[in-house]
Amino acid sequence: MYAIEFEATIENGMIPIPPQYLAHLQPRLKVIVMQEEPAEKQEEVTPTCKRKDKFFARMEQHRFVLPPDYRFKREDLYDRT
Q: What is the largest CA-CA distance in the chain?
C-alpha cells in the first residue's frame, strides 16, 4: 500500500481527486481524512487551572467515605500484610 497526499475542498459532499492521481488509483481505496483544527481551537491553550479542575472533577467521581471514627496511624503506613 502506498499513500498520496493532497489538499482539497469539499464540494457538494464530495472530495475531488486531482487528475494526476486518478489514472494510478485502483477502484478500491482506503481513505483517511485529516482536518486542520479551526484557528480559535489552535490558539486556545488550556491553562493549568482548567486542567486541575478537570482532574479534580474526575477524582470526585471515585470518592470513598471512611467511618467517622477512623484514625490514621503512621505505623499502618508501612504495614505490608
A: 78
